[in-house]
Design goal:
Porin; Gram-neg_bact_OMP; signal; membrane; mainly beta; 310 residues; 5% helix; 2 helices; Gram_neg_porin_domain
Length: 310
């Protein structure tokens, strides 16, 4: 019976538990450990930076009643710059076949929508950034349910270091013909007494080894009664040839006064097996120097990476 609970938990935590090895199972409770070690060298304007990182996570599940299970999840990321180390997830919850409810440091509801175009090994996703309550955040009550091809998420966030309060809602519907559609909305009150809202919509199509997707974002930031519109759109495509996957994205984000992101990115990732891959990723930055605070923010970037999942 515990295998059923594990399957339900892993499905509900698909965005956080990519790979895991079960280290304990007594028929009622289980513990799995997963993560990744990723070496990343980023070259920009002739200089090379070490952006390497390690993620380590623990997933526990236990049967707590007829058709119900408890779950706990923790993940921490360690970076080559130790000052940037962070806890990515700290939460626990109760789940049934009708969904999983958790509380703690967990995802908001728009990540599954931005995942439509956030497909690259390193770059991309320049136009699909989420406001805090729709992203990974703390003091977060979250729900996720899967019903056939429909996945729904909802969460409410109380006051934390980033926001006063807020919520987000999202839904993804995947058809058997390879077409998938997504829609989500988020709204928050900030600690500075201004407000932000965001609408995101995405569509994708998969046909064999070919994947294409598009995303549109419309947002609003209101400060001291002054409203500013924030919009963005992104296109993504991928082609898998044997054990190598080629991806590309184009993204643009803008306010009423200027472009905040504008780039084309390409990469190639070779999967030696399910645990080890290598990739090269290049970002063509289309922003002008007069649109950014520093010159480096308008420079192209190349990244080489090696990744081991465990």
């Amino acid at each position: 019976m515990n295998k059923t609970f594990i399957a339900l938990a892993v499905a509900a935590l698909a965005s956080t538990s990519v790979s895991a090895a079960e280290v304990f199972n007594d028929g009622t409770s289980s513990m799995a450990i997963g993560g990744r070690a990723e070496a990343r060298a980023a070259i920009q304007d002739g200089d090379m930076a070490d952006n390497s990182r390690v993620r380590l996570n623990f997933l526990g599940t236990t049967a707590i009643g007829e058709g119900a299970y408890g779950v706990g999840f923790f993940e921490r990321e360690f970076k080559s710059d130790e000052s940037a180390d962070e806890n990515r997830y700290i939460f626990a919850g109760i789940g049934t076949e009708y969904g999983l409810v958790t509380y703690g440091l967990n995802d908001g509801s728009l990540g599954m929508i931005t995942d439509f175009t956030d497909i690259m090994s390193y770059h991309g996703a320049v136009a699909s950034s989420k406001i805090d309550v729709a992203d990974r955040t703390s003091n977060n009550i979250a729900y996720k349910g899967e019903f056939g091809g429909l996945t729904v998420k909802a969460n409410y966030v109380g006051e934390n270091d980033d926001v006063k309060k807020g919520y987000s809602l999202g839904a993804v519907y995947a058809m058997e013909n390879g077409l998938a559609m997504a829609l989500g909305y988020a709204d928050q009150d900030n600690l500075t007494k201004d407000t932000e809202s965001q609408l995101e919509a995405a569509v994708s199509y998969t046909m064999g080894d070919i994947y294409v997707a598009a995303l549109y974002k419309d947002g609003e930031n209101k400060t001291s009664g002054v409203k500013e519109d924030l919009t963005g759109y992104e296109f993504a495509a991928a082609y898998t040839m044997g054990q190598t996957k080629f991806t590309t994205t184009y993204g643009k984000a803008e306010t009423e006064s200027k472009d905040t992101a504008d780039s084309i990115a390409i990469d190639a990732t070779h999967f030696f097996n399910s645990n080890f891959r290598t990739y090269v990723s290049y970002n063509f930055n289309l922003l002008n120097e007069n649109e950014v605070a520093t010159k480096i923010q308008a420079e192209d970037e190349m990244v080489f990476g090696l990744r081991y999942d465990f």
